[in-house]
Amino acid sequence: MSDSSTTSTAIPFKAETRQILDILIHSLYTEREIFLRELISNASDALTRLEFEMLTNQDIIDPGAELGIRITYDQNTKTLTVGDNGIGMNESEMRENLGTIAHSGARAFITAAKEIGQSSGNGRLSDIIGQFGVGFYSVFMVAENVRVISRSYRKEDAAAAWVCAGGDTYSIEPAEKSTRGTEIIIQLKEDAVEFAQEYMLRTVITKHSDFVPYPIYIGANQEQVNKRTALWRQNPRQVEKKDYNEFYKQLTLDFDDPLTYTHISADAPVQIYAVLFSPSHPERGMFGIRKEDGLKLYARKILIQDYCKDLLPDYLGFVQGVVDSEDLPLNVSRENVQANTVMARLKKLITSKVIDMFKKLAVEEAENYAKFWLAFGRFIKHGVSVETSEPENLYPLLRFHTTIHPDQWSSLDDYLGRMPERQTAIYYILGDDDHSAVVSPHLDIVRKNGYEVILMTDPLVDPFMLLRLKEYKGKSFQNVAQADLKLPENAESQSSEDTDVHSIPVQDWLPLIDRFKRQLGDQVSDVRMTDRLADSPARLVDASGSPNAEMQRVYRLLKEDFVAPKKILELNPRHPILTKLNSLPDSDERSALAITQLFENTLLIEGLHKDPASMISRINQLIEKALD
């Protein structure tokens, strides 16, 4: 119990709190109204916490009182009061909640405030208030002084008052309050008396707090201002797009509209109301209110979890929104919600609806889907690599650049639609970026035959995805870098007309092959001629029995000590560099320089060269020899 004999004593703010108050009081803002949003949000949180407490505890003050937020004003005295009958505070909780700010939150706010002040003035600074635990202090943008009177829900706790005029100190003293909850009494500044007018208060509440799940009463007659009706429980046909966008911004404090959304209302296989959104960008940033993945989970309109991570797979964690189900028991705890059998059915349904949401976006709004893919494509690819239940549902969402359309996104269906009849597989190539992939020598044979190749050039996710993505609509995936790549028969015969190495006498090339082997030594497992090259002089392929290219890239990411297996160097006997090199005598020093450089060029194009800068000296020597 609080000590009722406590006297009013000046208590200094901590340094970080003092800095925040200085920023709030002495800076100029274009949206000072944000303070009311923060006070209402805090009141709503206090009511939610009380609701959760009442699930297991009825031994509280005023257990039957209607939960709500009440706002009164007096233009004559220039005062504004925001009250709630939520969980309340005792003296020690008041000291902790109003007298200090978490160090990390304070520091982050101060840094963000300085950055905004330096880059774009202070006009948007008010938008970040509340995101670092400093929302209450925004009241000092409009207040000469503030008196907070609160009484805890616990019957044995006494009421207390927190008083501050925005200076270096505050005081806490005993107070008289018979009811549960908190009242914030604000003495308005001369330039803020507009907030003692009903019209202004109604405007601000409608703009920022219309969907708060508790009634907000205003004025002497205590008329309810906010709609209160949970948007997710409304009939989707009666909700307009602007309402969804506004709700999303209130839920997340994101400045931008969502890219897309879906409204779920179903009775089977599980009862559910939900509104889910895809943000327009992956970073929450310092301005976003939600600092963790997870959806807001309600059971019969009562908030159970603020960040429920068990309703969607991890790869869809960027999705934000609200889920409400009457199939969840009201006494479910935050700790055991995951074990509830309803959760598995909810997760399956929600995941399916989210994937359908993205499929619909791809069909109906191609431009917006391209934005989605740029922002979240990596998450979808990760989903393909980890999803154990029907990963093929994600395949239609995949987008790629290709050799024929390197500047636009193509779906797998787009690719299949452009395939010539003779093509029997989906061709792809791995690379570290699009530019290096399109100049890869592995593309010579397929490009010559007019085949389109998908560019798999996200080295962090594509190799993992390809371990699971084996076929699509009956067409298998084939890496064009495979040494044993089989093209359709007519393509093979067409390419062999002018590239068949068997038409060239073997003895003409054995000396050059031997020279490569002696020069490169154990850097390669073998050197041989190939008919799979047209415009490129050489390429590296895996020896039989080596891990495939996908596994090698996975190992490189997961194992620091991974050493790639030695590869086979294949040479193009019709390339001018090789024919001229073959004519050089062994004693010509240009031969050794060229052989080493050709090999290291192949390492470079494969992303395997450990020290590209080391080539500069050799290249300079070759240039000097060429000029001589």
CATH class of the largest domain: Alpha Beta
Task: Report the radius of gyration as a whole number of Å.
Answer: 34 Å
Can you tell me the number of structural domains?
A: 4
Name the CATH architecture of the largest domain: 2-Layer Sandwich
Distance between the termini: 96 Å
User: What's the average pLDDT?
Assistant: 85
**What's the overall geometry?**
elongated
Number of strand elements: 22
Low-pLDDT regions? 1-6, 102-106, 120-133, 331-335
Description:
- By secondary structure, the chain is α+β, with helices and mostly antiparallel strands.
- It has 4 domains: 9-224, Heat Shock Protein 90, CATH 3.30.565.10; 231-371, Ribosomal Protein S5, domain 2 (2-Layer Sandwich); 390-495, Rossmann fold; 500-627, Heat shock protein 90, C-terminal domain (Four Helix Bundle (Hemerythrin (Met), subunit A), Up-down Bundle), CATH 1.20.120.790.
- Helices cover 35% and strands 18% of the residues.
- It contains 18 helices and 22 strands.
- The strands form 4 sheets. A 9-stranded mixed β-sheet has the order 1-6-5-4-7-3-2-8-9, with helices on one face. A 5-stranded mixed β-sheet has the order 10-11-14-12-13, sandwiched between helices.
- Helix 17 crosses helix 18.
- The longest helix has 24 residues, at 341-364.
- The model is unreliable at 1-6, 102-106, 120-133 and 331-335 (pLDDT under 50).
